[in-house]
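Protocol check, entry for the methods section draft. Step 1: assemble the input record (protein sequence plus ligand SMILES). Step 2: submit for complex structure prediction. Step 3: store the structure tokens unaltered in the notebook. Ligand used here: magnesium ion. Step 1 record:
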Amino acid sequence: MEWQWDWALVGHILPELARAFRVTIAATVFGFSLALVGGLLLTILRRSRWKIISWPAHFTVEFIRSTPLLVQLFFIYFVLPIQLPDFGGMFTSAFVTGVLALGLHYSSYTSEVYRAGIDGVPKGQWEAAAALNMSRGRTWTSVVLPQAIPPVLPALGNYLIAMFKDTPLLYAISVAEVLTAAYQIGSQRFQYVEAFTIVGALFLIVSLISAWLIRRMERWTALPAQ
Amino acid sequence: MSDSTEKPPIIRFQGLEKAFGDLKVLQGIDIDIPEGQCVSIIGPSGSGKSTLLRVLMTLEEPTGGRVEVEGESLYTMKRNGEEVPASRAHISRIRRKICMVFQHFNLFPHMKVIRNVTEAPIHVLGLSKREARERAESYLEMVGLSDKLNAYPAQLSGGQKQRVAIARALAMRPKIMLFDEITSALDPELVGGVLDLLREIKESGDMTMLIVTHEMKFARDSSDRVLFFDEGVIREDSDPKRIFTNPEHDRTRQFLDTILSEQA
Ligand SMILES: Nc1ncnc2c1ncn2[C@@H]1O[C@H](COP(=O)(O)OP(=O)(O)OP(=O)(O)O)[C@@H](O)[C@H]1O
Ligand SMILES: [Mg+2]
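Step 3, stored output:
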């Protein structure tokens, strides 16, 4: 029996895969939003003068970066609800768990990126803000972050794409994302090639478009030349 | 020195010390500065001039002694009758009376000139956007930059940048202004204009000014008092005319001879 690419099947399963791909996109968007905020928070906490604040933040980053995402995913999904029954309700949804795990994991990477950006802001900028009696918060929002973030947008963008490509791991906790859907379709008919090829193509297209958008964004946000 | 007013001096340093590790940069500074005085601070490189200003601006913490502003201790406060390290709020309340202009301008490069000048008045002093803008425009006019409101710092010359930095500080209406070698990074032909601006600021108000400078002519002709710094102490505290014609100390004489021959 000779195998042949089945266009009819493609037409048939595409809508279902597209629906599942929306879950993939949603997990990426929510997960990365979390990573953007969480990473910034970790960075600012790590810079605290008080060790009692900076040290746990430091440890969190190191811990997350040294353990695999899949382990963290299982840990949050299977272990935390048992260990922390009071919070268990939050984790019943596999999607929420997946988003949390992705967001937390990538927070540790974005935190490093922010740190590099912040270290790039000259000391004189902090001093000028202090000489104008700006508060810590105002110094961050008006002076430091607007200078720290534009140069690291490419690095943040790379992590966005990396996270996007990590979302199929959510298959492991049965989130109805695109790989889970493709696997189900394939196993129903024992025809895997079309489904997985479509999944690959979807990832390729979105990654390429994102990379292009990120490059555009860099140009919009560039600081005036020094 | 002849002041016998009831008011405490606007600035008082008492036994002020600052060390970086083993390096003692300030070794007991005792000095009172009455309100409205324009003080030039001169002295060799590394003698601690910048450090003194930076301690007053709270950019460096002293390792000993005391700083008072209008009779209030800057780094300590009273709690239940005891002297305790100052809270951030306490420092911020006093620091609000002081502003500093830096050698390298330290303008905010991502903000247009006008926003460089309005940002702190809006968010620190709580001015409305309109009030802040009017105030900024008037100071930028004073420094001769009315046509640059919408330029970015990168589009300005060094002298223009320093004028913006001065306008930015003036817009905070501080009682005390600190100037740390504000003409040292400028091309020679731009120095005069910025010094004229300093004179104008001095004439136009009763601001207390501490000016670290290598411009001896300015120190002699335009300040009320000259402090000669040497190895972390104030070696000479003098009337500007006297220090240049008849310094008390040999160190002062040596320093002035060297620098005046360079600037001749
Ligand atoms: N953050 C720091 N850490 C270590 N040493 C420092 C620091 N800041 C200043 N110093 C040292 O303190 C000494 C005094 O420095 P300061 O900048 O006050 O001198 P200055 O009188 O302003 O000199 P200049 O005329 O060159 O500006 C110098 O030896 C300098 O190297
Ligand atoms: Mg100096």
